[in-house]
Design goal:
The complex is a heterodimer of chains A (about 475) and B (about 150). Chain A is an all-alpha fold and about 475 residues long. Chain A is built from 17 helices and no strands. In chain A, helix 10 runs antiparallel to helix 11. Chain B contains 5 helices and 2 strands; from the N terminus they run ααββααα. Classes of the chains: A mainly alpha (about 475), B mainly alpha (about 150).
């Protein structure tokens, strides 16, 4: 670690992983509720479990992005963080606000929460992924602004590398597009249209810039490949992400009211959205092949390649599967959407955060060459458990979605099976999904265990460093 | 990539490309917002419809149901529930929704459960108005059939 202030990343990473565990717990509960509706009811109805599951995901990824930025920006800028104190304060503000919001979901009925937090003054609640009370949303804005300010000032006083500039662009975009969450008109069509300016422009827009920057940073560190070369790739990847993704947002506008030309615009441009992800795969593998050093932290390299491949499968392949308007007409809002969502979020964002954690955490814990061989073995096992089980979940949901479309969507009215009867036909797929979900949870436990595996004694570690 | 393709070329593609498509998105957004009044029949948004949307949000209905295909996939699509359960008759639909919401949670073992939200008749009617209004949005004929 080059700068003292990079250490502020540590609590962000640790807390992100704790929330991740919570997310998986509620995922398992929903997996069971899909099979037996009595489970957890009425204490934790499905809608509450889902809200906790998705909101924990968003919050832990934000913690991960923040931790990653606090770690890599000073190192890239070659200067201490502008204000480590502000970063520490914001950690606690965000952690307390996040936990309070989740507890609010769990402890009071949602309508009660809306009343308690005076949603009527500025109604923003009750929309998918944006369920947070308005006061929490304001808190998120404050935390994001303080964070972007801190990172921005650090970059201003230091070296302005391409990685830093791309990252800060992504982070500013993240903060700016979140402001659309405060726009909630009476007109449902306008509401839905601009809702996507948060959701799509985050996950298929500026988050890809953040992902690209994190991946590029780790690749520079572990491969020693010339920075110029890596930066060139980064530019092309994010260029393709925005060129395809901005108008690609049209694939969400097919059937929620906007004009028909979106059927064409959305299909054509979103069909290009796999391109940047495919380039990330080429990028990661090529850089590793052209490596100029053998970094002892091999598992960080595995995560870097893994996130590129899984993001390409989840966001690229599974996205393309149902993105063309004539296909989407039948698959829109089916279990196929859930299949795509799971693999894409895990592959692109969960894994890129674990990638940077895998690289940075050992350094912050005094092991610059990475964890011991034994710890890396355990982490590698967790990598495969999580990746394979997530592919399992995705395949189970894909099969469920295809069968759902065949029974419920393709036949004419009258012949088509109702939603609820269709769901009964899908139970075996949901059992498979739950099984893979349990496997994923075991993978996550294994991942946590890897942090506590016996490390080589400090003297040996010093010797390894000296040799390296 | 060959050496002829330099970093500054890559950078220019990034800046030029994203600026161009950001402008295009801005233009299309303006055009969409201008065209929407023809498609969303906003002139029919009454106080009851607006109140219905508020209730829809405050009870987190989207946490189980989908609306025009968006939301959760645990419970039926509701943008066309008026067509499915009301068969074009607004009074029949209002009556149906009152009965249905008041009967929750259904006492059917292992069936997916809908909570009891304790809404008044007036509130349930507002929800009906909201769902009836929603069913009449021009959404390019989605869903493919009545089952949603």
């Amino acid at each position: 670690m080059k700068f003292e202030s990079q250490m502020v990343a540590k609590p962000y990473f640790i807390f992100a992983l704790i929330l991740f565990a919570g997310q998986i717990l509620f995922g398992l509960l929903m997996g069971m509720q899909y099979i037996d509706g009595d489970i957890g009811f009425p204490d934790i109805p499905f809608n509450v479990a889902r809200m906790v599951h998705t909101n924990l995901l968003i919050v832990w990824l934000l913690f991960g992005f923040m931790g990653a930025s606090y770690y890599l920006v000073p190192e890239e800028a070659e200067t201490e963080l502008y204000s480590p104190l502000l970063a520490k304060i914001m950690f606690w503000v965000f952690a307390v606000a996040g936990v309070a919001t989740i507890l609010g979901y769990l402890l009071v009925p949602y309508a009660e929460l809306a009343k308690l937090t005076h949603n009527e003054l500025l109604p923003t609640m009750g929309r998918e992924f944006l369920e947070q009370p308005t006061i929490t949303k304001i808190g998120i804005v404050i935390v994001c602004l303080a964070f972007v300010f801190n990172i921005g000032m650090t970059i201003l006083k230091g070296r302005k590398t391409v990685i830093n500039m791309v990252l800060i662009t992504g982070l500013i975009g993240l903060a700016v597009f979140f402001l659309f969450s405060f726009y909630n008109p009476e007109n449902l069509v306008l509401d839905k249209f601009f809702w996507w300016f948060v959701i799509h422009l985050w996950v298929e827009g500026v988050w890809e810039l953040i992902m690209g920057a994190l991946l590029a940073f780790v690749l520079i560190k572990v491969t020693g490949v010339d920075r110029e070369h890596i930066e060139k790739w980064l530019y092309v990847i994010i260029a393709m992400a925005l060129i395809s993704g901005l108008i690609g947002m049209g694939h969400h506008f097919f059937f929620i009211g906007p004009p028909e030309y979106w059927l064409w615009m959305g299909s054509i441009f979103s069909a290009l959205e796999p391109v940047p992800f495919f380039m990330m795969v080429l990028f990661a593998f090529k850089m590793v092949n052209e490596r100029r050093r053998e970094h002892a932290n091999q598992i960080a390299i595995t995560w870097a390649k893994g996130t590129a491949v899984m993001a390409f499968l989840g966001a690229g392949v599974w996205g393309f599967l149902h993105t063309l308007a004539p296909v989407n007409y039948y698959t829109h809002g089916s279990q196929l959407t859930a299949a795509h969502g799971h693999l894409a979020f895990f592959g692109a964002y969960a894994m890129v955060v674990m990638c940077i954690i895998s690289y940075a955490m050992p350094i912050m814990r005094g092991r610059p060459q990475g964890n011991s061989i034994n710890a890396q073995k355990v982490e590698r096992l967790s990598f495969w458990l999580m990746c394979l089980s997530m592919i399992g979940i995705t395949l189970a949901l894909t099969a469920a979605g295809a069968w759902q479309v065949a029974l419920q969507r393709l036949p004419e009215s009258g012949d088509a099976l109702s939603f609820m009867s269709t769901q009964d036909e899908l139970v075996s797929f949901y059992w498979a999904r739950l099984g893979f979900g349990v496997m994923f949870a075991l993978g996550l436990v294994t991942y946590f265990v890897s942090f506590f595996v016996f490390q080589e004694d400090p003297i040996k570690q010093e010797v390894t460093q000296a040799i390296a | 990539m060959t050496e002829k393709f330099t970093k500054s070329m890559a950078r220019n593609i990034y800046y030029g490309g994203s600026f161009f498509f950001l402008l295009l998105l801005f233009g299309l957004t303006l055009d969409t917002v201008r065209q929407l009044p023809k498609r969303d029949h906003r002139e029919n948004i009454t106080t009851a419809v607006a109140h219905g949307k508020e209730l829809w949000e405050n009870n987190n209905c989207i946490g189980c149901h989908s609306l025009m295909g968006e939301g959760a996939y645990y419970a039926p699509e509701l943008a066309n529930v008026f067509d499915r359960r009301g068969a074009g008759n607004e009074d029949a639909f209002r009556g149906y929704l009152r009965g249905w919401l008041n009967a929750q949670p259904l006492d059917v073992p292992h069936r997916r459960k809908m909570p009891q939200f304790n809404l008044t008749d007036e509130e349930i009617d507002a929800l009906s108005e909201f769902l009836i209004w929603t069913s009449r949005i021009d959404d390019n004929n989605w869903p493919p059939n009545i089952e949603g």
